[in-house]
Amino acid sequence: AQTRVLRSGKGGRLKSQILNDEEFPLYLYGPDGKVKAEFCDAAGTPILDQPLGLNSNRANLHTMFAVGGDRANANPQVAMMNVLFLREHNRLAGLLQRKHPDWDDDRLFETARNILIVMFIKIVVEEYINHINTSVFRFKAEPK
Predict the structure, then answer these.
(1) Which pTM does this prediction carry?
(2) CA–CA distance, 107 with 100 (Å, rounded to integer)
(3) pLDDT tens digits for 32-71?
(4) Which of 1, 21, 86, 131 lies in the 20 to 30 Å Cα band around 42?
């Protein structure tokens, strides 16, 4: 359900907005401080996880991105990674759509998603894990 409300339904892309000529996720909350209707079910219940820490600070609602996971807005580093992966997903979906104009939205979305999963695993294993690794050898992620 979360993935469904984050998808644009056009060319395999995720919903996004352009701010100062750069792509970002949509904002989760409207000006009224409530979760936007497009991120709620028919009864008005939010589908996306609510960001952590909102009980103590609701002043920053207007800056919360609509992304999957309650930690996505927890700190600037995690928000940055979410923005980068949204941009890369939409860039890949656009490339795939130009190369395969006969593919439907689902196939474009899932193919871009699968490519990003491999990229994420490679970053985690080959950069992060190897950075904290104390052994003599380095780990390598092989997508095969």
Answers:
(1) 0.87
(2) 10
(3) 889 999 999 999 999 999 888 776 667 778 889 999 888 9
(4) 86
